[in-house]
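Researcher: Good morning. I'm working through a list of sequences from a screen, and I'd like to move beyond sequence-only analysis. For each chain I'm collecting a predicted structure so we can compare shapes side by side. This is the next one on the list. No need for commentary yet; just the structure.
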Amino acid sequence: MRTATDKRDEAEQFSRLAHRLDAAAVRLVRGRPAIDLALGEIFLRMGEGGHIEELSFSKLTDFANEALGIPPRTFFSLCELASGLRERPLLRRAVLSGRVTPEKARTIMDLATGLDEGAWTVAAMEMTGKELKVAVRGRSGEEAVDHDWRLKTLRFRMTVDEQDQLDYALSLAKEIVGYDAPRWKLIEAIAREWLARDRNPDAGVEAGAARDPVWLDEMTKQSDEVSRQLRAVFEAEDVLSKPGGEVPEENALAMLARARLLLSRRERFDDPLGRVLLRISRERLWWWLGFETFGDYCRERLGISESTARQRIRLERRLARLPSLRVALKTGRVTYSKALLISRDATPLDVDERIAEAESTTWQKVKQRADREEREAERLNEEIAVEGPEVAVDVVTEAVDDARRQILALGAEKVTEGAAMARIADHFVAVYEIPLGRAEWRNAWQKSVLMRHGGLCAVPGCTRAARDNHHIIYQSKHGPDEPWNMVGCCRFHHQRCIHRGLLTVRGRGGEVLVWRFVDSSLTPWAEFEAVSDVEVCVGLDAA
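Model: Good morning. Structure tokens for this chain:
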């Protein structure tokens, strides 16, 4: 039987461990604000100078995933921080000195202006994150803006037949919302149509109405070598020393190279940080440090969001089982974004194959494989997961609950969530199937060309919807109007890249295509070969 002395000794041991790991975590995140702010400045300058378009990217999210290898949320968060601190010199210095975390800076950003900047900066130094949000809410009369884009997952059982009903509704939703829309947005659209059924009884009567529905509008531990950390901070300060908003005389590739260098410095803190956070979370050591939740510890003590910490923890757990993926990430064979996708389904038996495949293709193709395997697993396990922004998942939950109540009111004894979701999908199909079927296309084969890549632009790495049919052999050179001579592209890549001579394509549509970015000084890669739907980089820098 354990004595009081044993319990006291155990408590002291946990307390010492908690404070030791906490000190390591704090040192790991120290110095990161300068690097984050420098990266945000580079990204803003690239956008202001048109450099992202020069690199042939039509979307900022594609640029983040393909060229930088970071999640788009991280990209936009860094841009937001740098943009907000440009006109707030006091708050900027407080962030760079480590006295105010980036999370607190975002909380007070809207109020820390003009003569009020100093007072709010001092408040951010002295108050906890929760106290600061209460103060901001009291001053503005509104809820503080939540800059942490909260994700939520809804899981429930759903048979294969019920999933077939949902898949057909999703195919129709793509016609309305867009083929480049994420899956959660399509499911949210289907759910919103169900919730709006009583307020819009005539929806779907006209084809035009189907294409513009009402709901569419709502829709640091110190590194092992101290010099590395110091060099990273010095490089960041070199960027920050230039006047805010000034676009330096650098070409797009030079700015991209500097951003990648800073990202590599930033990522050196991630691996040990993931290990420390894993222990703090798993052993609930945050409680011994006086915090109510792990999320409070992350925000108040480390200045990072809980979702960022848990993403790092999930990846660390997978890397512990897949050591070759850890090596590939450290050596730069795969980017952080690709590593997140590979870790979802990889096993020790196939991880090397997945790494080799990811190394030679785009993030987009790695994502498509991961999503396809996830859908197959859902069908096998007869379950479904809806992951997306909290507000969107709440809409789906509300629709499912409403459908269950309606079916029960009709005399059913038991209604599963999967059956309710299938009922919602059937309602969406009933509203939009006929109007969409009446929609006229120029030619059936022209639509089939646009649909070759699932309705997306055929340019490697692009996630925009295909809008234009490009003639591989130009019509001016007597290229025929035949499917083999056509390829579906978004308007940016068709009109601003191909027809301006920045991008060329040769081959036969639907069979073999070779894409080449003509000016190698303005693109992070050189040439891609696409055989059917398999893309392989045969030029430079696939990762």
